[in-house]
């Protein structure tokens, strides 16, 4: 079936799939090409978005100066001039989240359709599974960067306050066309989230399930749990792990595993942490804890703070203590 997904050994199904996913080399088949090409248009911009976010420094100094000297017009203009291009960047990030959401929904449609099982889909649509993984990988990287950059919300709050003051005083606001009030409201909600991209994907997955009532919810949740299991098995099995030609693939797999767990937890009625969950949460957390601590703290925090059911009564004390 190509080289993204190879079934290496037979295994008891209750233990989960025992696969090697070659995230490094999957190529689309003819039947995948239409969706693959649509998603690829979005994904090719992902690295540039991350670079822009990584280099985002904010206008904290100019804003502080303007606030401390409210009567100094030059300082007000300087702060406004510094914030306008930054808001343009924030708008670009937000618009990219909308494109990513549309791409995810297209992939979910392809990877959950009847009559195939999640495992069959991952075998048949290897390149689409890889793109799904790439979306999750991007999402967690974006949110890790956003969480450590308070300038984003400070800049946008200043922009909105200044804009509303200009309106009251009937001052023409250069840059208002850039972000109108309705868009500004949506952007505010987006950036108020600790992990905005993950929230966007969780909401999109939940919406996908509710809009496709003729599709059993298990088609979606089993797709997610299968990917989580495959990533876990690859990471904890030296024979499989040694097949990675690039060390970056390890962090890629870790992020994908955490991403699908969070999506599963938001979409599945009882979540990822219940005893009936198809995800081996203890095994997944152990794999994370076996990595160098500084490399996975952000991922452990994502499980602690962006999942929905961790603090439910049905979650075992052992799992809760593993994440403390």
Automatic annotation (TrEMBL):
It is a lipid-anchor. Residues 18-320 form the CYRIA/CYRIB Rac1 binding domain. GO terms for biological process: regulation of actin filament polymerization. It is found in: Membrane. InterPro entries: CYRI (IPR039789), CYRIA/CYRIB_Rac1-bd (IPR009828). Its main location: membrane. Keywords: Lipoprotein, Membrane. GO terms for molecular function: small GTPase binding. GO terms for cellular component: membrane. It comes from the Eukaryota. Belongs to the CYRI family. Interacts with RAC1 (GTP-bound form preferentially). This is CYFIP related Rac1 interactor B. It comes from Sarcophilus harrisii (Tasmanian devil).
